[in-house]
Amino acid sequence: DTLCDLYETLTINQAIIYCNTRGKAEWLQEQMERRDFTVSCLHGDMDGPERNIILREFRSGSSRVLITTDLLARGIDIQQVSLVINFDLPTNRENYIHRIGRTGRFGRKGVAVNFLTYRDARYLRDIESFYHTEIVEMPRNVHEYM
Fold first, then answer.
1. Is the sign of the CA dihedral 129, 134, 123, 127 positive or negative?
2. Which residues form the Helicase C-terminal domain (predicted)?
């Protein structure tokens, strides 16, 4: 529900939503499609040609929201991505910086949002400590950062 509310509130060019598992990515795609959101899903269980089609649609802008795993945490540069959502916080702290680095590319503004559970607190502390930063709660005026 929170993800759908955020999606309805913000003006999003394109967004990447990261999940830690293929199963969670597919589940989230189903949940969003049930609420009439158009989303694409890409993960490692798909064959190369299928992944290429989905990625091509996303690059062209015909698909605006891509749900994926860490398969796309590195090496993808899409100029229009204005929002990255960690639906699952990565358990590997190095993947965090690669995931959020998909937004705000080419000198553009971008926002990264993390969805957290109480169980994620230790991963969040580890990420903050490793990168010498503080990850703050999402401000009410988040739309001004996009």
1. negative
2. 2-146
Per-domain boundaries in the chain: 2-145
Residue pLDDT tens, the chain, 146 long: 666 666 666 666 789 999 999 999 999 999 989 988 889 999 989 999 999 999 999 988 888 899 999 877 666 767 778 889 999 999 888 899 889 887 766 666 788 889 998 888 888 999 999 999 888 887 666 666 55
Residues with Cβ within 8 Å of 113's Cβ and at least 6 positions away in sequence, in order, are 6, 83, 84, 85, 86, 138, 142
User: Could you tell me the fold of the domain covering 2-145?
Assistant: Rossmann fold (3.40.50)
